[in-house]
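Weekly sync, protein design subgroup
Attendees: M.S., D.O., the rotation student, P.L. (late)

Item 1: inverse folding check
M.S. brought a backbone from last month's batch and wanted to see whether the design step gives back something sensible before we order anything. D.O. pointed out we never logged the input encoding, so this time it goes straight into the notes. Structure tokens as presented (459 positions):
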């Protein structure tokens, strides 16, 4: 079942990737299924698993959630010792099963499967050049550009083919590439999208987030470094590095919204980073109020931090419908406001007669924020002070995030006071970029172009 367009007012990541290098007889497809289940928050449009056994690759992928795409019979048919899995939310390429991943291609040296999280800024140029040389593309995703380049450049050494491909592509990519006998992880030289290494019972795994390792009983070893190529095969695990410049520019929105709170990235727990952001938010934007509530779930850790720093009690003021995921069938235009009510409802007794601080992780277009303020006031809140645990989103992202055009970004077109008026709040405060970076730890470099306009790669 396809879950339709995104109905909430958030930025959305593109994908989650997961892979295992195991052994014959290992229930590898089911373990991969559980790993993808843990990464479901990173993409809800399609899911796929490819496995390698005896040098051959089998795969299955469809539109829908992981639990809808796979059943016991499908998983049992995917026997192998190496796996490559993917969950997708489309930012580049239409939402059709043809664009789902892993991409599996046959070429002169065999077959390979590839799962990609990110986006290339020069994909159109590369695609045009390849088409001029007679290459026929089956999909509209830039991941196929990467797969074609690797296949064309593989003259018997897949590692050299990956390195040569990295010379050509520009943008953000965390890749898992599976051949008949190898599992390869690749992270772009700027380290924008996350990728980590885990281990269980002597076998290695790759994942977008460490929470997937926890789910399958594996241990996080470390992040794949920017520009690193990790090759896992019968010889063990080996690391190689891109010969060009390498920098740390992990997407800071992983800490604000994308990452699951129980994940660890760049050695930092995401929940604790969000909680520190809430503390800093109170220091920068205090409010005189009776209770602090969150926009669940991504605003909750910051709201707890805000409550702790201010001494204002944290209460559950909004209840989330757990059966509505991040995507669902969008109401018609005349029913637009119901999209918020389907996901969140107000606990009227908690907010009635109260001055409320409501903490959210971001404001993108402002429509959901306004609806939430109205819901609180309709339930009897006497004041609603909106606090945001990140700076205003003012610039689009070109690196694998589904960002509206700048014309639709409220932070790019209105002042803070104008946004406050638009969302009908009594006050509005954003965390500064400095406060955000202090919360996530400035020792690691971050891409914060959506806030600052400072892109690590020119478009």
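Designed sequence read out in the meeting:
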């Amino acid at each position: 079942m396809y879950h339709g367009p995104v109905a909430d007012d958030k930025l959305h990541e593109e994908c989650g990737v997961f892979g295992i290098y195991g052994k014959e007889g290992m229930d590898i497809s089911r373990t991969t299924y559980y790993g993808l289940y843990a990464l479901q928050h990173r993409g809800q449009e399609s899911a796929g698993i490819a496995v390698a056994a005896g040098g051959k690759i089998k795969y299955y992928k469809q539109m829908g959630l992981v639990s809808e795409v796979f059943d016991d019979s499908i998983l049992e048919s995917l026997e192998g010792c190496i796996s490559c899995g993917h969950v997708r939310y489309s930012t580049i390429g239409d939402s059709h099963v043809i664009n789902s991943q892993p991409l599996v291609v046959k070429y002169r040296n065999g077959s390979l499967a590839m799962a990609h999280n990110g986006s290339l800024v020069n994909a159109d140029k590369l695609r045009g050049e390849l088409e001029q040389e007679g290459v026929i593309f089956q999909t509209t995703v830039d991941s196929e550009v990467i797969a074609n380049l690797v296949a064309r450049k593989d003259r018997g050494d897949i590692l050299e083919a990956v390195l040569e491909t990295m010379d050509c592509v520009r943008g953000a990519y965390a890749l898992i590439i599976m051949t008949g006998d190898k599992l390869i992880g690749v992270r772009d030289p700027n380290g924008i999208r996350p990728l980590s290494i885990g281990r269980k019972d002597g076998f290695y795994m790759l994942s977008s987030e460490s929470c997937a390792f926890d789910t399958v009983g594996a241990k996080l070893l470390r992040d794949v470094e920017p520009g690193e190529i990790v090759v896992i095969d019968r010889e063990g695990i080996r690391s190689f590095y891109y010969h060009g410049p390498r920098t740390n520019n992990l997407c800071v929105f992983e800490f604000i919204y994308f990452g699951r709170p129980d994940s660890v990235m760049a050695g930092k727990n995401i929940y604790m980073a969000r909680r520190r952001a809430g503390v800093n938010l109170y220091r920068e934007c205090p409010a005189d109020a009776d209770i602090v509530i969150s926009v669940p779930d991504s605003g909750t850790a910051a709201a707890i931090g805000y409550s702790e720093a201010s001494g204002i009690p944290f209460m559950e003021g909004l209840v989330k419908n757990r059966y509505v995921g991040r995507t669902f069938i969008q109401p018609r235009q005349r029913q637009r406001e119901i999209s918020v009510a389907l996901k969140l409802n107000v606990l009227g007794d908690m907010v009635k007669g109260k001055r409320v601080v409501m903490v959210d992780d971001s404001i993108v277009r402002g429509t959901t924020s306004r609806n939430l303020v109205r819901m609180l006031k309709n339930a009897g809140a006497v004041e609603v002070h909106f606090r945001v645990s990140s700076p205003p989103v003012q610039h689009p992202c070109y690196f694998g995030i589904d960002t509206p055009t700048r014309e639709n970004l409220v932070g790019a077109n209105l002042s803070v006071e104008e946004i406050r008026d638009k969302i009908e709040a009594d006050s509005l405060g954003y965390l500064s970029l400095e406060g955000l970076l202090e919360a996530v730890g400035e020792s690691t470099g971050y891409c914060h172009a959506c806030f600052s306009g400072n892109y690590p790669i020119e478009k």
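Discussion: The chain has two domains: 14-247, 269-444. The two ends are 35 Å apart (CA to CA).
Action: P.L. to compare against the previous round before Friday.
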